Records
---
Amino acid sequence: MVLGKHLNQDKDSFYSEIIWASSALILLLFFGYLLGNTWFFFAMGLLVYILWHLRQLSRLIQWLANNEKDMPPDASGFWGDVFRHLYRIQRHNHHRQEKLMLLLNRYKESTEAMPDATIILSKNWEIEWFNSKGTEYFGLQTGKDNGQLLSNLIRSPILWDFLDSHEEDPSFKQTLEINASNSERILSIRLIPYGQKYLLIARDITSIKKLKTMRKDFVANVSHELRTPLTVISGYLETLGEYLKEEPVYASSIDLMQQQSHRMCHIIEDLLLLSKIESSEKRVLKNEFIDMNALLMMLKKEALVLSNKQQIITIEDTGPKWLKGDVNELQSAFSNLISNAIRYTPKGGEIIIRWSCNDSGMACFEVQDNGEGIAKQHVLRLTERFYRVDVGRSRKIGGTGLGLAIVKHVLAHHHSKLEIESKIGFGSTFRCKFSDNMLKSDK
């Protein structure tokens, strides 16, 4: 209703202006006719009318140029409506600008309070804005470095490979860990595209890395320290078992102690293997290639022994002959997947060990079973250390809870990944995917 009222007022002013101007010109024509100089008076009237409009236009320009926040000049008729509407629009834009500035200031305050460095980049990787952590982590200078190319200020080939990966594939979501150039900090960098810009977020993970290193060292040291006394205990238990095997009171207890000591020895061996693999993840793989045909035959023999002919084990080998990698690590990873399938597949079940290439050229090692399957909520946590879906059953069948953690780290060392598909009552498929640069032609 307010808008309709303003429109009606504008129409009234417009019609009033036309009526007023027309009446004045008709009156001038009449006086000119009476005085014998009709067109002179008419021309003078038009000139005065045009000069009046030019005067109002000059006042409008002067008001806009000097200070648009001041009240507009007084004017009557049509120009009064023009001044009033422009003033209303300016006030609306001013309030809107104040709101935007308030939101922008709140955003800057919130990013300043964040513990992460935040850098806004253009599509050409030019720095548009950064918070104080950007200065602390990367040495950027406020004002001076705005508009500069990120490559001119942060010289890191690893970072630029990471940015290129995002430019080539907008769905690329991996993070990058690099050492800060001006300190001993370890930064985790994430790039988030939005519109035609990028938001670079760098988090200081130095303390997290130190804790992980301490944990790795602690596990490795404790495992080394426990292995010797456990070996001694196992040896004495075997000796006692031989001497007391005819004594039923002691035989069952000694047998149980032997089982638990063997289980502890397996856990320690797996922990030592995991520590060894973790320490080698940063080691560059040599150009050594594994004969996959021979490795598959070895894995099948081990599987048949472990299965004791309780499951049907099939090999499907249609993949490439050669795979780049560490044969001991990959054999350990593949063996863990196969042994897990055997443990959790009931008697008479089928296990397929498959080596093939998919449509995208990636080589895949798969272990597929038709066992009981795994619920969806457990799948994402299977590679965590000591994580078990059913703790009691895992202990009963002899699992250590470290097998899939070993697989995960071996594949990370080989720049590969593990995919898990499972459905309750239908079985599971564990798939190791290797990129084409890990393969070698048979020629």
---
Amino acid sequence: MPPMSRGDDITLDFDLGSEDRFFRIKAAVIRRSGDACVVKIVAHFKDRRFIPLTPLDLLELKAGLLNFGK
């Protein structure tokens, strides 16, 4: 895991198996330990820009992560 400190902005990419199941997430580091990092999701990349997540976007992301690999 790369070095990160509390308050750093990071970008995470989740490839869930297909082009329409790819998420680019902007987040802020809340807490960091040796083997874990807690982040607050701020926005996602859509239509070539970062926009705030809606409850439906969060549900889609959670469902995709839970179903990944099945």
---
Amino acid sequence: MIYAIRTTTGQEKNVAEFLASKAEKEMIEIYSILATEDLKGYLLVEAPNRGAVEDLVRKTFKVKGIVPGESSVEELDHLLSHHKIIDSIDKGNIVELISGPFKGERARVMRVDKHKEEITLELIDAAVPIPVTVGVEQVKIISKNS
């Protein structure tokens, strides 16, 4: 079964790595731990029962608790299937830069290069519109306006 664990937002990967090493060191029966960009503030843990997950998260820094209930892999298939973000970005979308020198800036997508997985943006708050080309991993979609 799959269990969801609430964590401090932004610390999902650190907590996942810590829990994985704790499970190995203390020989807690955990099958897998997933930290995904789509679930901010949550981890997914595959374990035989809730008791194993409770043992895993007990006295763990930055873990806020276990979400009540359980899920199956089939219910979470949409989170586990690989999809490229480039396929969901279109010309005219508004994005926020999440890394690089323009981190935190909002921009309008001017061109999408699916082969190189790059997009050309125009910063919204810039005094002079200058095209900036970045990799798709450096942005998150804010709105799908065209």
